[in-house]
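Dipeptidase: structure, please.
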Amino acid sequence: MAPPPPPRDLHCDLLTYLAKTPARTPEDRAARCSIPQLKKGKVGFQVMAVFTEDSKQAYHEARAQARAFRSLMSTHQKEIALFPFHEEGHLEGGGKISAVAALENAAPLLREGEGRENLEENLDSLEKELGPLFYISLTWNGENRFGGGAFAEGIGLKEDGQELLRLMSQRGIAADISHASDALASDIFSFIEKEKLTLPVIASHSNTRLVHNQARNLPDELIKEVIRGKGLIGLNFVRHFIDDNRFEKIREHALHILNLGGEEALSFGADFFAAEDLPPERYRLHASWYFDDFDTAESMPGALEAITEGFSADLKKRIAHSNVQAFITRHMHGKR
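Here you go.
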């Protein structure tokens, strides 16, 4: 029997963990997505998010995480390497983890009171530190200068967001709608069509709202739009986006995306982070943030088997690996 295909993951928060304090290291199990955990989980490709909330500190927090990313690439060269977008081929990096950064919330790109004319310069500066970005989420959970976040119901795309989408299209950076309001996500698709942008749209770490009714999960109409644009949808392992009782419910999310035509879109966006770092009032919102045995990157092979039991070998490979590879080849080679 052939070994299971190595999983590729579209979202983890190791950089947020590392930037909290200089005493932390990429080997710390508390991160849930440490280098040893990623290796044990056979994760060969990992998107690492630069995450900030909408605050006056967003710019400085993003720069701290960028420094953590550069340090990681420098100090762990035997284990991890920057993914070479300019090279055609596979995601494997000679046995190393291939890593690429992404921006979860565009707030650091324009500080309070800063003119829109600085947007391109700020994006240049961030990519100079991080390398080419895989995707940018315009918002987090609230409203910012670019649009409405996942819990900012009814707030769509703003003028700053339009300008950012134009820049992303020029650079081959995907738009991530995992933290967008439904109104913002719909506006993004409409704006892309109106301006004829070559801008792929993904949901890097979102499940389906029909299976589990959470604002951060995707309604069917947005799932269909991502699929229509040949984007990606990464299954999220956080408990309250799956089900209140059992991890295996994630299979229903996968089946629902497949039933909507998502054979070439479905992938992983596990969203592992150190929940214990959350402010106490947010940490206590949920009795447990992850299911036992599926709470670190080590669990990826087992999760793949739980989700794809009975699937064809080709479909398993697509979900674990090939869909991400095809997306990069289709949308990003030649622009990086």
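Notes: Strands lie at 8-12, 45-51, 80-82, 97-104, 135-137, 174-176, 201-202, 233-235, 266-268.
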